Amino acid sequence: MTASVTAKLRNGANGNGRLRLRWPHYLILTAVLLVLLSLVRVITGADDVTSSGTVSAALRLAVPIFLAGLGGLWSERAGVINIGLEGMMILGTWTGAWAGFQWGPWAGVVAGIAGGALGGLLHAVATVSFGVDHIVSGVAINILGLGLTQFLAGLIFNTGEAKALGGGPRQSPPVDPIDRVTAPVLSGGDFFGWKSPDLLGSLEDTGWFLVSDLAGILRGLTTDMSLLTLVAIALIPISFFVLWRTAFGLRVRSCGEDPYAAESLGVNVYRMKYAAVTISGALSGLAGAFLVTVAAPVYQDGQTGGRGFIGLAAMIFGNWRPGGLATGSLLFGYTDAMNVRGGGEAVHALLLFVTIILVAVALWQAYRGTTLRPLVVTDHDRADVRNAFIGAALAVVAAAGLFTWFLLSETVPGELVSFTPHLTTLLVLALASQRLRMPASNGQRYRKGEAR
Asked: Per-residue pLDDT for 301 more than 80?
């Protein structure tokens, strides 16, 4: 057997030793996870695991994380690391609230986008034009955004008409919320003035295996949804199309992969980086505007709560792609919703869910190691086999520990429940790190004409 044939047998379709997943695989995986969640709900009686309220809350909590992560994706696809997303979100919350309480929520959305874009432009000036280290500039943007909005809140919201309407040094006057819609017939929305029946709600209340869970998920996605949420969902295909199907997107991505090669082909690298980082700031500002027009119709000090950093984690989990980013954002939003809606009992039910997943991971890693063992040729091959069996063993140990915890307890302490979203961030990044590939020139300083 030739080396090339052996390599193909070892590595599969994508040539790197890992199964290459396509859309059918993702659909099957989603279906399997849904069946597992339904099974866990039936066994534990924790209805909030797949209830429409939990799904609706998860979507609402995931949108600002997704928008911030999408901002990071645009910037890093152009080769500029942007850890200043949090500061740009903060600028978006203040400018969104400032315009929103005066001229309405959609004016607040536009102002939030402008405020975030201003932060992105400042980051571009520092990193692209002056060559400042990207991390240093991002930290400075975060500090500047926090300090500036605190100063402006005390200066504007604590005086005159704003104060009379309920503003103060740490919060703005109330902002009118953006309109919400509910799907008629399916979830009981209005249909030309007629209140239609809530068919999905009736199915959810039955408690039937899988049917009730599907109804709860669909009802959560079609009930009381903000129009701005629909805009955020539309940005998934729009961003993919622009970045991967247009000449502009190709130029942006070429700057993140090899700016000097792009320069040699006539691309204005500075202009592309400026455009991408400014768009990054605008999307982060939109995330901030979402917080003050949808999540809570008022600006408050500390309102972002680290969502910019979680957005970065979701972007990395999604391998710098909009679809993966959306999946990661929903995962973090779901764990946060479990904290808000279900508390310790719902998170306790997830211990069983994670246990089953870890057992499946252990079986897959053991199968992978067994399959690769007959094809061992080099030391690298031996390391692959060894790592597969080590991964299987670690998954078994973790599954045993979680299952023991599940059997010996009835709830999860509140302190751990509130930490669940952050713990999920750490675990997801640790497990997904070996499958990631960021843009090749991400974070590198570029100077025109300095190609080696």
From this structure: yes
